[in-house]
């Protein structure tokens, strides 16, 4: 039977329910217990016959003449309903047989018991239609596999795949634990603007919009950084924000144009303090949320127990690609060396972009265990403080887990003259065609000229962190509604 025929049949059943004077979409349900609470009640008094009212979606129906079984699932779990004609009445039983379908929401009242096989069950005294589903659930109800359908119609994915539900429950718990961790260390959670007049704080292409009342172009933020630094300048010593970021870039298993970031800033600290904090935070998260500091990603086991490896970026790129970028003062020579390793160098790329591509192509995929790459070239980090003993480098680290970047942090540049010169250089790169170069935010530069204490800033991609902790291979597995191309697009 085709879907159109199924929908037509379900509409007929809907009208049959209404013809009996029954509202198939009542405003409320008389629920006394969730399915999980009902099962727990049965566990506490296995010989009793406690009467409960539960409600949930029908996920299975097994008819056997004058008795039927029905599985109900709510947000907490599943329980079985047992319907006998002599218990619910002939008319109600006929209504059950002829109007209830898979996917409907039903309320059931009755006594708890266990079947001979030990299945927690409610012996129904009555039932109520709570919402008649006009469309059928996925054909493969016990495990929807079509990736296209799973992402476009996430509600079907959640209905059909319990492990997907668990991933998003885990994501929520991770964010809750991050907040507890940051609060316990004396950080203040704040909120900063999403609509901004200047998209700064990262090397990324912004989304552009227009504010009608103000009659000006604005941007969706590409980072939280510059406003959080303003708060440090204003006197807050420790601040953090968990918020949505928007970058007008590619869509893939690693990138989504809107994603969630944790950014934090701590006055009187440097990047070494944040390395230790990140180790503690993520290993603690693993223990509290997963119950272990070990997890699997594909065929690999990841161990979150600190301490983690700390490798200079120069050493990592030289080992994996054979290119020592410090040995090339001439940009054209560096371009040729990178191209010889298979990096598709473009004419507009500057030194920073080439080094970043060497990292992405040759190093990043090999960093399965939690690893800090440290001490980046100044060209790659226009907002970071130089190393005193090596001024061509900055005090910066990136954290990689499972072959993906998860965090980025550095000792913040608080010299307003140096900062202005670096951002102006970024503006020149942008004018030359690099549309991912930073922009010079004059308001931020003025704020910095009022004085900012030594500080360290951290950014953690929440989606990437959830991927690492759950062993997910695609960012779309950990974002409820990921961005997708239109149907039929390559």
3D architecture notes:
The protein has 490 residues and is of the alpha+beta class. The strands form four sheets. The chain has an eight-stranded mixed sheet with strand order 6-10-11-18-17-16-15-14, sandwiched between helices. Strands 1-2-3-5-4 form a five-stranded mixed β-barrel. The protein has a three-stranded antiparallel sheet with strand order 7-9-8, with no helix packed on it. The chain has two domains: 3-137, Beta Barrel (OB fold (Dihydrolipoamide Acetyltransferase, E2P)); 159-308 and 369-477, Bira Bifunctional Protein, Domain 2 (BirA Bifunctional Protein, domain 2, 2-Layer Sandwich), CATH 3.30.930.10. The model has no long low-confidence stretch (mean pLDDT 93). Helices cover 35% and strands 26% of the residues. The longest helix has 23 residues, at 162-184. It has 15 helices and 18 strands. The protein has helices at 3-19, 35-44, 85-88, 90-99, 147-152, 154-160, 162-184, 225-234, 271-290, 313-321, 331-340, 351-363, 416-431, 442-449, 462-470, and strands spanning 51-64, 67-74, 77-84, 105-114, 120-131, 188-189, 195-196, 208-211, 216-220, 238-246, 258-267, 294-297, 300-303, 309-312, 371-377, 393-401, 404-411, 455-461.
List keywords for this structure.
eight-stranded mixed β-sheet; 2 domains; alpha+beta; 26% strand; 18 strands; OB fold (Dihydrolipoamide Acetyltransferase, E2P); 490 residues; 15 helices; 35% helix; five-stranded mixed barrel; elongated; BirA Bifunctional Protein, domain 2
